[in-house]
Amino acid sequence: MKRMRFLVAILIMWLFLFYNIERLWPEIDLTDVAYTFVSVTVVVVMLIPRLRNLPVWVFVAATMPVFLVAKAWVKSSAWGASFPLTVTEVCAIALTTILARWVSIAVSEFESAVTRISIGQVDKLPESSSVGQAKMYQEVRRARNYERPLVLLAVGVEEKSFDVALDRMVQEVQHAMIKQYVLSSVSKTLCSELEDYNTIAQSNDHFLVLLPEVSQDKLPELTERLRKLVAEQVGVTLKVGAAHLPGDAATFESLVEQATQEMNAERKPQPQPTRQPQQFTMEHNAA
After folding, report:
1. Does the predicted model carry a pTM greater than 0.70?
2. DSSP 198
3. CA end-to-end span of the chain
4. 22-48 burial by CB neighbour count: b if 16+ within 10 A, else e?
5. What structural domains and CATH numbers belong to the chain?
6. Are 238 and 157 in contact (CB under 8 A)?
7. Are the C-beta atoms of residues 55 and 96 closer than 8 Å to each other?
8. Which DSSP symbol is given to 127?
9. Are residues 155 and 205 in contact, defined by beta-carbon separation less than 8 angstroms?
């Protein structure tokens, strides 16, 4: 936490210095393109967490040509007499990228720590989106080649089933923690109730479940059982969409698209929880 505060303070101090550099050193006349590019760089790095996985030199090397083209287009030239100023601006953008990336990594580490503390670890977790969908893709090819039945489920949580009373100042943080808690609990139920040869992958705020050798007539009983278990154990309502091979689609991408569309369009009445082991109501009492 102290490290994150320290990095945020450094980034703020650097941005303050950068945007006031002409007042401190009037001989430095930065272009409007540089001022705009620094702001855009901070926003992009902070709002796209996946960029932290890239080596910093890759991101800097990718952004520099864009900056040079933009500067040449707006200011006619980035070379010649303007070259020293261009070097200064490139260095400023590179430094901003590094600082923003450090802050983004610190924020992500803090979010992960809060998740582990608030939720804890479960015995079995779904596959990551990339690994799980790669396994599903191979299984779809196997089922299609050998003409075997297969079902792909898209499983999500109906957010209206959350009973959340939140204060305005903490609403976003608390809702994110509640949502992560619910998804973790749902994933634990799915992993414990489905067979080991079934593949479960989390995709953003829902799950993809691949059920090899499951025919269409067996699906209603399975989905109803999952709905009841999640309603009883977690206290939320599942929405489920299904796509069958080969009846509904012939490719993995088509199965995912159809199952997801059916999940989002579902308005079927769901079973109500018989007990509420978790209470998702949070109220903030003023001191």
Report:
1. no
2. S
3. 25
4. eeeeeeeebbebbbebbeebbeebbee
5. 2-119 (no CATH), 129-265 (3.30.70.270)
6. yes
7. no
8. B
9. no
